[in-house]
């Protein structure tokens, strides 16, 4: 872990706070690649992941932007209320599950709302490399779009396309944006689930190949309502049977039974709790694994996923 201090805090947009974090020991922070995120270990016992949006070449600070979620489970509320100027906290080393293919022939970047954070770092990196790209930034209205002044002043401002629901004349036209699915191009998208599905489904319908598309979720899609059934987990090394009630997660049941599984995001996004399954069929509800990994049915995320069979045997 790294001890950091909030060196600067500002309102980036309606409901979005921007934090610049510096090393508490006045050293450069570890390097990171565009698309990377860090874990914030918050004082209320929660761990949350936030993407880095500053220039990867600048190691003097890490910049994050956090939307205050109306249904916050404590993470964004803590950031907005407790992480004031001068506050200190622990963070993880940067990790990258949304890596930029710097060798591609061209890049299309799509950001929805606060999903601009990793996409902004990608734009900075691509500009530094002299690689061609277009950056589509979509939001409900201008008041909810972070970093507009920064984007207007950026050296790549002519590559930025702004789209707002409140301004019909600016709305994103996928027929135009996705008109060239050449195999050497790559598409990156981050933002709310509905926005991401709109872009990804639109790309696939316009002959973009799945392996050309990269995406990063903030949270897994909610599971089917009223369909949570109890099931059992079996610990392969000991034979211990851990019952999972319909109203609790597998991770909660394991913790209550004294079985340690590392958990971070609790939303099926980060992959920290990914656990090997040796028997049984998981009910995958995460946004971390690929379709191929889910089809293999040999691992699951106990923070949000469940079981289709009455038992799952875990390689623990």
Automatic annotation (TrEMBL):
Coiled coil: none annotated. One of its GO terms (molecular function) is vanillate monooxygenase activity. Pfam families: DmmA-like_N, Fer2. Its EC number is 1.14.13.82. Its cofactor is FMN. Keywords: 2Fe-2S, Flavoprotein, FMN, Iron, Iron-sulfur, Metal-binding, Oxidoreductase. Residues 231-316 form the 2Fe-2S ferredoxin-type domain. It comes from the Bacteria. PROSITE patterns: 2FE2S_FER_1, 2FE2S_FER_2, FAD_FR. InterPro entries: 2Fe-2S_ferredoxin-like_sf, 2Fe-2S_ferredoxin-type, 2Fe2S_fd_BS, Beta-grasp_dom_sf, DmmA-like_N, FAD-bd_FR_type, FNR_nucleotide-bd, MRET. Residues 1-101 form the FAD-binding FR-type domain. This is Vanillate O-demethylase ferredoxin subunit. It comes from Caulobacter rhizosphaerae.
């Amino acid at each position: 872990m790294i001890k950091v201090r909030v060196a600067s805090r500002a309102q980036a947009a309606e409901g979005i706070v921007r934090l610049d974090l510096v090393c508490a020991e006045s050293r450069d922070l570890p390097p990171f690649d565009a698309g990377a995120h860090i874990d914030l270990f918050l004082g209320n016992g929660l761990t949350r992941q936030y993407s880095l949006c500053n220039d990867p070449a600048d190691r003097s600070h890490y910049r994050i932007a956090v939307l205050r979620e109306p249904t916050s489970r404590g993470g964004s509320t803590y950031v907005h209320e407790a992480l004031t100027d001068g506050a200190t906290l622990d963070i993880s080393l940067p990790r990258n599950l949304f890596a930029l293919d710097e060798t591609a022939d061209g890049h299309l970047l799509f950001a929805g709302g606060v999903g601009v954070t990793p996409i902004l770092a990608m734009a900075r990196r691509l500009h530094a490399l002299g690689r061609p790209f277009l950056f589509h930034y979509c939001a409900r209205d201008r008041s909810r779009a972070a970093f507009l002044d920064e984007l207007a002043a950026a050296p790549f401002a002519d590559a930025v396309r702004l789209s707002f629901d409140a301004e019909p004349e600016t709305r994103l036209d996928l027929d135009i944006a996705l008109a060239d699915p050449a195999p050497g191009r790559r598409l990156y998208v981050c933002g709310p689930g509905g926005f991401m599905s709109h872009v990804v489904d639109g790309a696939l319908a316009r002959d973009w190949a799945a392996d050309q598309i990269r995406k990063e979720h903030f949270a897994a899609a909610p599971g089917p309502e009223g369909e949570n059934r109890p099931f059992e987990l079996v610990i392969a090394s000991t034979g211990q049977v851990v019952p999972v009630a319909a109203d609790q997660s597998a991770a909660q049941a394991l913790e209550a039974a004294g079985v340690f599984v590392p958990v971070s995001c609790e939303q099926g996004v980060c992959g920290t709790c990914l656990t090997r399954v040796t028997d049984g069929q998981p009910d995958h509800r995460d946004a971390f694994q690929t379709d191929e990994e889910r089809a293999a049915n040999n691992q699951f995320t106990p923070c949000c996923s469940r079981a289709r069979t009455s038992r799952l045997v875990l390689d623990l």
